[in-house]
Amino acid sequence: MTIIKQNSPVLFFYNDSKKWLMNISKKESLHTHIGVLKHADAIGKEYGSRLMTNKDKYVYLLEPTMYDYIMKIQHGTQIVYPKDLGYIAARAGIQDGQKILEIGTGSGSMTSFVASIVKPRGHVYTFDVDEKFMKIAEKNIRRAGVSKYVTQTNLDLKISKEIPVTEMDVALIDLGDPWVVLPKVRQMLKGSGCIFAICPTMNQLEKLTIALVENEFTDIESTEHIIRTIAAREGKTRHSFQGIGHTTYLCFARKAFFGRKAKTTKAKTTKAKTTKAKTTKAKTTKAKTTKAKTTKKSVKN
Amino acid sequence: MTIIKQNSPVLFFYNDSKKWLMNISKKESLHTHIGVLKHADAIGKEYGSRLMTNKDKYVYLLEPTMYDYIMKIQHGTQIVYPKDLGYIAARAGIQDGQKILEIGTGSGSMTSFVASIVKPRGHVYTFDVDEKFMKIAEKNIRRAGVSKYVTQTNLDLKISKEIPVTEMDVALIDLGDPWVVLPKVRQMLKGSGCIFAICPTMNQLEKLTIALVENEFTDIESTEHIIRTIAAREGKTRHSFQGIGHTTYLCFARKAFFGRKAKTTKAKTTKAKTTKAKTTKAKTTKAKTTKAKTTKKSVKN
Amino acid sequence: MTIIKQNSPVLFFYNDSKKWLMNISKKESLHTHIGVLKHADAIGKEYGSRLMTNKDKYVYLLEPTMYDYIMKIQHGTQIVYPKDLGYIAARAGIQDGQKILEIGTGSGSMTSFVASIVKPRGHVYTFDVDEKFMKIAEKNIRRAGVSKYVTQTNLDLKISKEIPVTEMDVALIDLGDPWVVLPKVRQMLKGSGCIFAICPTMNQLEKLTIALVENEFTDIESTEHIIRTIAAREGKTRHSFQGIGHTTYLCFARKAFFGRKAKTTKAKTTKAKTTKAKTTKAKTTKAKTTKAKTTKKSVKN
Amino acid sequence: MTIIKQNSPVLFFYNDSKKWLMNISKKESLHTHIGVLKHADAIGKEYGSRLMTNKDKYVYLLEPTMYDYIMKIQHGTQIVYPKDLGYIAARAGIQDGQKILEIGTGSGSMTSFVASIVKPRGHVYTFDVDEKFMKIAEKNIRRAGVSKYVTQTNLDLKISKEIPVTEMDVALIDLGDPWVVLPKVRQMLKGSGCIFAICPTMNQLEKLTIALVENEFTDIESTEHIIRTIAAREGKTRHSFQGIGHTTYLCFARKAFFGRKAKTTKAKTTKAKTTKAKTTKAKTTKAKTTKAKTTKKSVKN
Q: Residue D24 in contact with residue D4, Cβ under 8 Å?
């Protein structure tokens, strides 16, 4: 039985569209249009209990899940939604212990979700170029409690010659032009490793698919995921009137070796100077730098 | 770089509908209508490499993911599909370290998937009544490599008075009549804990939703998940001609306390005699048995 | 080339969510938040031309189609949407010359749509019990230009013993409890005639389907129709972000003869006193009664 | 009451996937794997009646609707499906009396459907270049009973300089490259007239949308239509397991006048030598031929 204490995270839940995620702070109150709640009143209660506002509305004190953290992030930035995240995890078989490469940290929602699955033995290496965004992501990742399992690096993998990580189990790409980093991603992925790209447009799917073949990936699959809510009520069950629209398409593939005449150059990998969940600029890289001559292939269709 | 050895699991992948999952066994061959492959030829190769059959078809040697194990289970029994499993994980925020209750082990596909996420510190307690099915599940779970994180018990939670586990983070129910076990599930779940039920029909959603309210659950949500495949090809990208039909609806909720006049009887929990991933019959149970007087409530609508 | 004149109907079209349907009236102006337009400026122009508002926005002067009339009705009442209407027409094979029975006139949107297809040789007989609604419907039907092909009658077919029409090609039912009128509808339909019921809930589909079998209908089909809008734009084509939610399910069937022990009662049909597109109370009925040998069946519930 | 006679069209209906459409021919029998039926036994029966095969299976004698004719055509060629046809009719407001232009007759399914709606006062002018297909279409159109309302012409509107028809209410285009004929279609459409193009790929939608703007069309809308079948059964209602996949996307628009510096040349229209529902080669065209200088516009985005 988990009791709510000072500093405990709580999801104040009224209904699916009225909910507030915060840490308990003895002296604070939650002011909403359904009334006021004193944080202090939550202390000592078991998660799942409810409080009544001064307007006689019941609010449940739920223990936040990773879902709640992700949906909280939603307010303000574009996120990858749980329906899509779930499929990514299930299709790529993400699990404890894996090493995940993420290109495009964004707001850190996918980062947090994936970290919560691969922990404690796995790790997420995430790269972005926008310092401002990286700070937001850092905060979101910390809030979700998974900083320890995430390394954020400010590095532009589109142009950098470094190969900061290798033998990744899964690569997640959330860039407008994911095909640009494919040769590099390939070097960072283990053989048979999975790739998932967030592609909001059909054009991206198309270009990426062509590039995936050129870069010797197999089991290529493009999907979209539609979630429909059902209003299940006695004697009048039906789908919800409000629809859920498009979020993104997803493109999956696995790294293979086509055995093309590939004059494969041994790419010496180097580690970008990264910091655990700190957003630092990967300035230099020690090492016998990376010739990163990304396995050039002469490929047609 | 992971090299395929004797006994290594390999997904021989030709395309999405022609793929074979097996362990490498030096002296065996894979006979398919696209030709024959000798297992021995795979040994020493890196995952992701390809072999040519005696009919000149290329087959990729992929490292099986949890997805592959689940889809393999599919052949022969009804499974919960990755699109649904993924949402379950994402919506309930399943992650490393959690304790999961599963009622209705079925073929073990959901069991395996969930175990792969909560491991190494979490655990799945799964219950079923059909011995034959339990053996199949046991084999599938072992094959998926997660036996260590699963405890299978032959116990009918619909009628048993035992409370074999408590303080579960998440309860997964795959029964025809999930509402029957709700009072008991409630006792096994921690406060604010999540429940997910696999409901193939609308009628189940309806009945379950009513029962969830009666049993003091909140954040109740019924959904269905549609996956559409897109054939992304240069200049002619479109959705796939073959559609994906109905698999199941999902019903989610979280345990709350409505503070009803509940003359709550302290249910003393007892442990069913279970065995790690062995299907044993939970015959007796020692203990000061469980009066399991499930928090009777007087409820309206 | 059709020129807009005084009294011509015009759809002032700015975009899909900003459009106004009205008849040209020399001295009037259209006041919108995208500016003001004088009706007089439209006169003499060809349909399809555009005018500029005093805020420099272009508005197209489109010739209203039946679609525009139906979507116009939408504002204020619940309508059957074009995506559903279209399927009804296509599945039931509605065409010129047919006689259509409609139970539940509602706002007259379905009435108008169907009338526009069966005219000039067909006719729609529509029944409702709500006088206020009938007046609204009458106005909408007139506006859509199909009054001549519609007979509105105030008659409760759930309780009335009259059989006001017979040998209908198609019956459209928009009632909360469509199963109640099935035996009667059967008497009004020709052999092999089609039925379509608007069923917003799954429970209605279920009850109706059972009743359709009991009432000797075949080719029973329940469907739902999802329309998704695609934002087709150069280099970034994708589905629209806003989704379309649930409108209604549809239930289709065709009248058959199961040859059950049918102790056929001669049901004497009478004609309700109806008026062409006038909402009059069907008091008495003259008439050389219709022998409407309505194959009475012994049916339960 | 309509009685089946020699030569009457009958849909022998066993279930949705086992049904046969044919004209009654006294001496013939229907041989199926559910048994044999003599046509003669159907004569004298009312539509909707049933016959028993020599294998004790009941088959219903339904009066074919336009839907049945279209679904019959399906076997062998690609058709536009009722779900899509219905939306076309509803969105474009197709109704009695309209003149319809169709480019790409195909198997004649859309032709027949549309003709059944615009008859008796309207007409469908349909153009194709494939003589073999035109013959098939001719047969299908005749079978559907609407030859009188259809004029088939063998003319390649992509290259021809003729403007065989004008002031069309609606234009339906079923070509791989619909944008090619847009300038010409524009000349044949009345102001504010509607266009619908059958576009199986996203790329077609994208190209066509760009071309529609360039050719001064407004109210442009791309959609896809998903039909889901529901198995409504007592106590276990759910969506059908088999899914319906992609058929086509649809692109709609209406002809407008953007008032661009258009040095509009009066296009003198000429009538292609056509024949009512006969597939004749439009050889010559008398007339002061058509300079068809398709209102060249200088357009940006």
A: yes
